[in-house]
Design a protein that fits this description.
The structure is a single chain. This protein has 607 residues and is α+β, with helices and mostly antiparallel strands. Among the domains are: 100-125 and 144-173, no CATH class; 252-590, DD-peptidase/beta-lactamase superfamily (Beta-lactamase), CATH 3.40.710.10. Helices cover 34% and strands 22% of the residues. It contains 20 helices and 26 strands. The strands form nine sheets. It has a five-stranded antiparallel β-sheet with strand order 15-14-26-25-24, sandwiched between helices. The protein is elongated and about 140 Å long. Keywords: Membrane, Transmembrane, Transmembrane helix.
């Protein structure tokens, strides 16, 4: 029988576990749930720290931390408004603005080298060292103004040079720079801007009109110097509102000519100073208002402070014999005299406790009223004015505009002096008749003479074209000018014809040098003693003047010239008469005013 082979499973012997030495990793390992629990605890602890900090920032003391953040990162910069231009009557700029820059600093970066940077800025930009040093060290600030309105090339060069020398933390931003392209032309009126704002003239008086309102931009920046803004940070902006232009009645080219002519006259006569005004007879617009000496608006610091304005408006003086035409115009208006009224004029005239004399010695003279004006007789004027009733002369002079400001809009204008009714005496009136014991400014006198030129109607003088409101709230300009009848048209015409004899009478006329070839001209000389402000007495110096208009029978311009203390001893006819002639001739030609072609006045001056 076959034998079957039986398979048997052979069991291998079981392996023994190998014993290995324990490591640190195997020692830390534990059950999974223990490791998760530990992890959760750690996360909870971290979140608790952040949560507590958030509560502290937003709930407990948010304002202090916001302020700290602002001081660290928020930049608030000025966006300068464009200042309005000051223009002449033809739109030519007398003051405008160009690209300028402000220089700024980040004290966080400049603090370390503050003394060296302050010295650098004092040298390059002319800033005050101590003030700059304080700003450069300002704790908690990232933004300080070092200097404003710096020419762009100068500011850029200074900041670039600072960087090359290793000074960090300076940068620039736009800041329009004020320009005066004509230098001293009309600087006495326009004024100028200083580092802290307008300091004189129209720039100061109409600052609110011109300035506009600055805007500002506030934003988070990684660095004020780089200007890099944080994408999700603060970003607030208020746009600037630009200022308004101010258009003047001044004719720039005429102003330049008048200034040059006045300068020549003052220098040739070795005088102290002078002023001249040109007015449009029909509108009252001031076409030129000149002072000499004056200043350059581009560099006002180079001139004394007393010259950085208009003495023609701020300084007053006795007008002298130009005043006589106002006295006579009132008499003619009252019908108390005529141009042919005959007067026997003695060599002296008693008034109160003093004698009145003429500027020349003479015995008894037979003059008509026209002769009194032509020869400029003090005594003859007083004798004619004795016909006034009490208070009448003062009423006329007030109506002519004496004793009150003309209202041009410049707060520096003086009102002059016209005695009050209570202090008015007969002796006072006798001297006021011929221009003493009264004070005026040059524009007042021009407006008074212009009243005669304009047929007896006074027009408020204007310096602003249209209308504008100054800082004091006064609305001024050609649109606001008032017209007031002062004397009749007949009285004005008769006065103008008598004034013509001052120039064209070969015997008694005292100012032939004031003639303008081809034109009929009316005018009046003036020579007045000057009052010393310290002693309140006459000090021997004089103011000489000439005022008039042309053409006599159809006046277009009124011109007034006054020169203080001529050293050559000349009077109104010889010193200021020729200046009047030059200015009037230029104005007539410039505006194409033709001669009227009528014969000049031949009123008798003697009898």
């Amino acid at each position: 029988m076959a034998r079957r082979e039986v398979k048997r499973s052979v069991r291998r012997p079981a392996r023994r576990p190998v014993s290995r030495p324990a490591t640190k990793a195997t020692q830390r390992r534990g059950p999974v749930h223990i490791r998760l629990r530990v992890g959760f605890i750690l996360v909870a602890m971290v979140l608790s720290v952040f949560g507590g900090r958030l509560v502290q920032l937003q709930g407990i003391d948010p304002h202090s931390y916001a302020a700290m953040a602002a001081a660290e990162n928020v930049v608030d910069v000025v966006l300068p408004a464009e200042r309005g231009e000051i223009l002449d009557r033809d739109g030519e700029a007398l003051a405008d603005s160009s690209d300028g820059l402000m220089v700024l600093a980040d004290p966080k970066q400049t603090k370390k080298d503050a003394p060296a940077i302050a010295a650098f800025l004092a040298k390059e930009l002319g800033v005050d060292y101590a003030s700059a040093l304080t700003k450069l060290r300002k704790d908690g600030s990232r933004f300080q103004y070092i200097k404003r309105q710096v020419p762009a090339t100068q500011a850029t060069a200074a900041v670039e040079k600072a960087g090359k020398e290793g000074f960090q933390g300076l940068w620039t931003s736009r800041d329009p720079l004020r320009n005066y392209p004509n230098g001293d032309v009309a600087a006495n009126l326009v004024g100028f801007m200083g580092n802290d704002g307008p300091l004189a003239g129209l720039e100061a008086a109409f600052d609110k009109h011109l300035a506009g309102k600055d805007g500002h931009a506030e934003y988070d920046a990684t660095s004020p110097v780089s200007g890099t803004r944080m994408p999700l940070g603060t970003n607030n902006r208020v746009d600037p509102v630009d200022g308004h232009d101010l258009t003047l009645t001044i004719d720039r080219d005429l102003q330049y000519y008048v200034q040059q002519t006045l300068m020549d006259a003052v220098q040739k006569s070795r005088a102290e100073s002078g002023m001249a005004v040109v007015m449009d007879t029909q509108t009252g617009e001031i076409l030129s208002l000149a002072d000499y000496p004056t200043f350059d608006a581009r560099d006002p610091a180079a001139s004394p402070k007393s010259l950085r304005g208009s003495n023609a408006l701020s300084n007053v003086y006795e007008p002298g014999s130009v005043q006589k035409v106002l006295t006579v115009a009132g008499l003619l208006d009252q019908g108390l005299v005529s141009p042919s009224t005959r007067l026997k004029v003695p060599g002296s005239y008693r008034s109160g406790d003093a004698d009145i004399h003429d500027w020349y010695e003479h015995g008894m003279e037979k003059l008509t009223l026209a002769g009194v004006i032509a020869k400029s007789s003090n005594i003859g004027t007083v004798m004619a004015a004795d016909k006034y009733a009490d208070g009448q002369l003062r009423e006329y002079l007030a109506a002519f505009g004496e004793g009150r400001r003309t209202g041009l809009g410049l707060d520096t204008e003086s009102a002059g002096l016209l005695a009050s009714p209570e202090s008015w005496t007969d002796a006072n009136e006798d001297r006021i008749d011929f221009g003493q014991s009264i004070s005026v400014n040059a524009v007042q006198m021009t407006a008074a003479l212009n009243t005669i030129a304009n047929g007896g109607v006074r027009i408020d003088p204007s310096l602003i074209s249209g209308r504008a409101t100054n800082n004091s709230g006064a609305e001024v300009g050609t649109d606001t000018a008032e017209r007031t009848r002062v004397v009749s048209a007949k009285a004005a015409t008769e006065t103008a014809e008598m004034m013509e004899r001052v120039i064209n009478d070969p015997v008694n006329g005292v100012a032939p040098g004031a003639a303008v070839e081809g034109y009929r001209v009316s005018g009046k000389t003036g020579t007045a003693q000057r009052v010393n402000s310290e002693c309140k007495c006459y000090d021997g110096t004089t103011t000489v003047s000439f005022g008039g208009f042309a053409p006599t029978d159809d006046p277009r311009f009124t011109v007034y010239v006054a020169i203080h203390n001529p050293g050559n001893g000349g009077g109104g006819g010889t010193v200021t008469g020729p200046v009047f002639s030059q200015i009037m001739s230029f104005a007539l030609r410039r505006y194409g005013v033709p001669p009227t072609g009528t014969p000049p006045s031949k009123l008798p001056t003697g009898w």
